[in-house]
């Protein structure tokens, strides 16, 4: 147990450090691109990425999560399963790529971008690249070796400065975003392959493939349903609205995801790998989850409230003055998505670590049904009602994911709420103060000052509570340790 705690600490250190660096780099590149490109351009790219991200689910087929979650009998079995996963990924990705090349024009027509089949054909080449990198990433995550992954991710995030932005300046429009993504994936493959100790071997076993699919089948269905949860809104908006509103929707949700992912990307896979290692020790398993929830909730809960209260400022800083219609969606999506981290995302990691991806699949199916029905209705009434409905429906996922997780772990729901109750209380006081300050007078400079005041109020309240004061001290110490490489 002591050894796993050290490994988790090191993994979290590198993961958090990476997200801090990435969240310095990514917003800068996005702010530049948002001011250089129109919402319509982002709308075009959104549909292209939607298609390739869907097909990419089948190239992985759930093998990455299988490798992380599985307890192998010996090194020989592990190596065989990894090779089976690698070659299966590669074969599926090649077949899917050729299928997209053949039907690219028809696909472009279906998603509302008629005449852009060549764009889809080019971008779908990333399927081959991700099939190479997916298994390598799983090996690093299983061993909680996030150091290499961190360095590679930071390097890849520099691509916009060296590829995308120069191409935009040369007039390549959406082609700049497409080419930038492809170069980033290629760099991922080169670095992962060069630095990894594991190299593909010509080993294969259909028997192992069938054994793996007993887990991977449900994981694939969970992944496909998760893709639909993320992208069904893009598809429906693409049908009923023009590329301008599609760009507004995609840029808004992406902006929020980028802000919140400093917490999700730095913790969810570390949590999954840690829980998978402790899946046969219920007490240690539950303690690990509650600790993660306590530390991440310290930041995620006030973050969501802050994004909602200061949504105008967040939109202006990250997207510029031409994205006024994105303000409402960024505020509401930020509020719900930030709070979902410690419920929906962490709940899903519990279910995957326990080998229960079917529960996530059921939750996602319900979410898809609700989203489709509500978006079809709200799309007739304009973009603003659609925003409200989209955000309201999203509440179903954290509620249901955590319900399944508590049933499996037998953690009492009251325990989970008590674990984060002080953060909720302090965030509500902070949010009410922010709304009051904005009500009397607001401008960009004053809002920045108000944000500092609200942050001060939040942590001041927590310092008055002995239990949360201790958590803050521990959090600060862990953050200092993360800076010591």
From TrEMBL:
Xref: Pfam families: Polysacc_synt_3
GO cellular component terms given for this protein: plasma membrane
Keyword Transmembrane helix on entry: yes
Subcellular location: Cell membrane
Listed transmembrane segments: 80-100, 151-169, 175-195, 215-241, 256-278, 290-310, 330-352, 359-379, 385-404, 416-438, 444-465
Predominant location: membrane
Claim: Cell membrane is one of the keywords in the record: yes
Membrane topology: Multi-pass membrane protein
Keywords of the record: Cell membrane, Membrane, Transmembrane, Transmembrane helix
Family: Belongs to the polysaccharide synthase family.
Protein name: Lipopolysaccharide biosynthesis protein
């Amino acid at each position: 147990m002591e050894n796993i705690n050290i490994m988790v600490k090191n993994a979290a250190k590198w993961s958090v450090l990476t997200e801090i660096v990435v969240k310095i780099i990514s917003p800068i590149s996005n702010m530049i691109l948002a001011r250089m490109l129109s919402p319509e351009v982002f709308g075009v790219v959104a549909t292209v990425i939607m298609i390739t991200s869907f097909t990419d689910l089948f190239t992985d087929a759930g093998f990455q999560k299988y490798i992380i979650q599985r307890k192998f009998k010996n090194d020989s079995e592990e190596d065989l399963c990894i090779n089976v996963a690698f070659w299966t990924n590669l074969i599926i990705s090649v077949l899917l790529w050729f299928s997209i090349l053949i039907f690219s024009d028809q696909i472009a027509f279906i998603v509302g971008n008629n005449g852009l089949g060549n764009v889809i054909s080019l971008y779908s080449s990333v399927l081959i690249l991700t099939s190479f990198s997916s298994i390598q990433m799983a090996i690093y995550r299983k061993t909680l070796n996030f150091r290499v992954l961190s360095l590679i991710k930071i390097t890849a995030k520099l691509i916009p400065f060296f590829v995308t932005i120069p191409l935009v300046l040369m007039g390549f429009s959406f082609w700049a975003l497409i080419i930038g993504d492809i170069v980033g994936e290629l760099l991922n493959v080169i670095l992962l392959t060069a630095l990894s100790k594991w190299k593909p071997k010509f080993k294969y076993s259909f028997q192992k493939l069938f054994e793996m699919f007993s887990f991977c089948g449900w994981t694939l269905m969970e992944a496909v349903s998760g893709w639909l949860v993320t992208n069904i809104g893009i598809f429906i908006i693409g049908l009923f609205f023009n590329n301008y509103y599609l760009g507004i929707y995609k840029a808004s949700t992406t902006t929020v995801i980028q802000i919140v992912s400093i917490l999700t990307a730095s913790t969810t896979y570390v949590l999954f790998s840690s829980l998978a290692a402790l899946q046969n020790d219920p007490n240690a398993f539950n303690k690990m989850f509650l600790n993660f929830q306590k530390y991440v909730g310290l930041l995620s809960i006030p973050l969501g409230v802050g994004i909602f209260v200061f949504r105008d400022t967040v939109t202006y800083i990250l997207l510029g003055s031409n994205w006024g219609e994105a303000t409402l969606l960024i505020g509401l999506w930020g509020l719900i998505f930030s709070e979902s981290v410690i419920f929906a995302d962490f709940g899903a990691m519990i279910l995957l670590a326990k080998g229960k991806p079917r529960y996530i699949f059921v939750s996602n199916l319900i979410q898809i049904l609700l989203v489709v029905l509500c978006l079809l209705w709200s799309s007739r009434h304009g973009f603003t009602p659609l925003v409200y409905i989209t955000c309201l429906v999203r509440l179903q996922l954290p509620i249901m994911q955590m319900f399944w997780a508590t049933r499996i772990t037998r953690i009492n729901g009251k325990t989970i709420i008590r674990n984060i109750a002080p953060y909720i209380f302090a965030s509500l006081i902070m949010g009410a103060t922010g709304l009051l300050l904005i009500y009397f007078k607001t401008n960009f400079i004053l809002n920045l000052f108000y944000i500092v005041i609200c942050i001060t109020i939040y942590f001041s309240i927590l310092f008055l509570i002995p239990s949360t004061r201790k958590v803050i001290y521990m959090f600060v110490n862990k953050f200092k340790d993360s800076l010591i490489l």
